[in-house]
Design a protein that fits this description.
The strands form three sheets. Strands 1-2 form a two-stranded antiparallel sheet. The protein folds into three domains: about 60 residues, Endolytic murein transglycosylase (Dna Ligase, domain 1, 2-Layer Sandwich); about 90 residues, Dna Ligase, domain 1 (2-Layer Sandwich); about 140 residues, no CATH class. It is mainly alpha-helical. The chain contains 15 helices and six strands. The longest helix is centred in the N-terminal third of the chain and has 26 residues. Helix content is about 45%, strand content about 10%.
Length: about 350
């Protein structure tokens, strides 16, 4: 036997099994399998819908980055994971194309559907961003829609006129009296509409935003405690919205108005006279306050039949959480907007004189 060859062969057989080269290629294979497994897992998760079982309106702030947007969407259960959302946005090349605004997402949406709603379109049709200020009436909102070449006239017909009665019945779960319009329930906000949006689409979007922002557990508790309806609450909020310019004073005026009702006093709101007369005016004459309309709270006791505007979240919150006080009268300085409160009618008359009213 050639012992030299045997030794040389034996030496070859005893090389370490876990050589550096084998470790490198083995590790690379494992990492590749992990990567591919993760990729296929992510791709499969993209077909899993969000958890929300109802339509949900979500506000995307203009200052948010994609991770913050994903966090908001995940918190509202529109998407299952913010990281999955970020992955899809980066994968499809949509970074930097998300447009801020208020969006109504369908129940259990796919991430692809969510992203398609919030990114810039392909340019075939420009989207329209419309802002409705707090306290606007339906007619004022319609004028704004017409300015953007959206169907403002149809919007009015569906929201106010008999022509839209059957359409409005689809929102009966809000407890709006059958003879009432959608005044008060079209939430003022900034919306992004498609240029070919129908009046039905616009109204449904705005009422959906109202549901999302207002129909909370806190609202239910307030209504139960005070034994009042949502319609009465929104009606009061619409008056507070038009009466008080200073946000911090709305809770005071809210408490003042609720107490006037409890005491059997007339609300005597000039904002309701404005609505009844269909005009804007800082102060009304005695004759003007006698206009024969159920919305005129100088003549008719209690709340008017329905809202006189579409109030924002600030005024609705003020009505839901009034600040206790002992005042029964107030006025707004026409120059500064300051709210001046009085406990007695004589003090109120003096305040009017001092404030040029």
């Amino acid at each position: 036997m050639n012992t030299e060859n045997f030794r040389r062969g034996n030496s070859v057989d005893r090389r370490p099994f876990f050589s550096l080269k084998r470790f490198f290629w083995g590790g690379l294979l494992v990492l590749s399998l992990i990567f591919l497994g993760g990729y296929f897992l992510l791709e499969s998760l993209l077909s899993v819908p969000g958890q929300t079982v109802l339509e949900r309106t979500v506000e995307i702030d203009s200052g948010f980055n994609i991770l913050e947007i994903g966090d908001v969407l995940a918190r509202e259960q529109v998407v299952r994971s913010k990281y999955l959302f970020v992955y899809y946005v980066l994968k499809e090349g949509y970074r930097g194309q998300i447009v801020a605004g208020s969006y109504l997402f369908p129940a259990k949406p796919l991430i692809a559907d969510v992203v398609s709603l919030i990114v810039r379109n392909d340019g075939s049709m420009e989207d329209v961003v419309v802002t409705f200020p707090e306290g606007w009436t339906i007619e004022e909102m319609a004028e704004r829609l017409n300015e953007f070449e959206l169907p403002g006239d149809e919007f009015v017909s569906l929201a106010l006129d008999d022509e839209g009665a059957s359409f409005r019945s689809s929102f009966s779960s809000l407890g709006i009296p059958s003879e009432q319009t959608l005044e008060g329930y079209l939430f003022p906000d900034t919306y992004r509409f498609s240029a070919d949006s129908s009046a039905e689409d616009i109204i449904t979007r705005m009422v959906g935003n109202f549901r999302y922002r207002i129909l909370t557990q806190e609202t239910d508790l307030f209504l139960a405690e005070r034994e009042i309806t949502l319609h009465e609450t929104i009606t009061m909020a619409s008056i507070v919205e038009r009466e008080v310019r200073v946000s911090s004073d709305r809770r005071m005026v809210s408490d003042l108005f609720w107490r006037r009702l409890e005491l059997g006093m007339l609300l005597q709101s000039d904002a309701t006279v404005e609505y009844a007369r269909g005009e804007k005016k800082v102060q009304h004459s005695i004759e003007e306050t006698r206009v024969d309309s159920p919305y005129n709270t100088y003549v008719f006791p209690g709340l008017p039949p329905g809202p006189i505007s579409n109030p924002g979240i600030d005024s609705i919150s003020a009505v839901l959480d009034p600040f206790p006080n002992s005042f029964l009268f107030f006025l707004n300085n026409p120059q500064t907007g300051e709210t001046v409160f009085s406990q007695t009618f004589d003090e109120h008359v003096l305040a009017k004189s001092r404030n040029g009213l």
